[in-house]
Write a structure and sequence with these properties.
Tyrosyl-Transfer RNA Synthetase; two-stranded parallel sheet; mainly alpha; globular; Rossmann fold; 7% strand
Amino acid sequence: MAKKRVFSGIQPTGILHIGNYLGAIKNWVSLLDDHDCIFCIVDYHAITVPYEPAEMQNRIFDAALGYIACGVDPEKCSIFVQSDVPEHTELTWYLNTVIPVAYLERMTQFKDKSEQFRDNVTMGLLDYPVLQAADILIYKAEIVPVGEDQSQHLELTRDVARKFNNLYGETFPEPRTLIGKAARVVGLDGQAKMSKTLNNYISITELPEEMWKKLSVAVTDPSRKRRKDTGNPDICNIRMLHALFSIEKEQMYVVEGCRSAGIGCLDCKKILSDAISREMAPIRERYEQLKSDRDKILTVLEEGAKRCREIAQNTIREVKKKMGLLR
C-alpha cells in the first residue's frame, strides 16, 4: 500500500527557534518512517511582508540546516525551497480563479498582518492562503502537520480543492490537518506565539547560559509576586514549556511546588532551562557539524527540488487539461 503523502513548510527567518521545533519539526520527524514526506522552506510566503533581500539566502540556508539538525532526514523525505519549484505560483493563479475574494478577506492572519503592516498591505498578503493551498494541492498531499494558527488556512485549502473538483472534475484530495502535541507555543512574554519578530523566543542553537539569561526574565504566573505566594501552574507559560520538555518527575515537582509555594519561579525556570538544554544539546551539536558543509545542504535542496518539480509538473499538466488550457 502506498504511503500517504505529507506536506508542510516553515518560512525562512534564519536559525529556527524552539517554537518551530515543538510546533512543527518534532511532529514532522515522527512521520518520516510511515509517510511520503515533503517539507518546504516557503520563501515565496516570506516576501509578503517587508524583509531584507541581502539576508534571504542566509535565512534559507539556516532554515534547511535547522531542519536536518532537528532530525528531518533527507534520506527519508524531500526538502526543498519553494521558489525552486515555480509551478507553485502557476497553480496559485489557476486556483485564484475558483476562490472568492471574500473568503480571503475573512482570514484572521490577513486581518492581523494588515494591522501590523498598515503601509504595506499587498496582494501577496491577501493571496497568501491561496499560495498555501497550491503548496499543498500541487503534491496532492493528504496530511498537513501545522500549528493551531494555520488551521483556518487549511480549511480554506479544503474549500479550494472542493470548488476546483466540482468545476473541473475530481483532481485534488481534501487534506487533513494534523496538529501535534504543541499546538501553539507561547513565547517568553507569556502572551503571543513564539516569534523572532516579537523577540520572545529561544533558538535551537543557544548555549545554556544564553538560554538561562532569557528564561530568567520570562513572564510567569502574575499571582506569584513573591516566593511564598502560591500559584496556578495551569496558567503559567513556564509550566506549559515544562510539559513539552521536562520528564514526568520534574513536571510533578514543579506543579506541586508552584501550588504550595514550595519552590520559587526562578527554581522552576532553572529546571526548565536544564530540560531544554538536555534535549537541544545534540541538535546544537549536529547544527555546528553541518554548518561547515554548505555544499551538502545545497545538494539536499537541489535534489529535493528536482523530485518535487517532477511531481508538480505532472499536476500542472492535469490541471491545465481539465481547465481546457493544455494544447
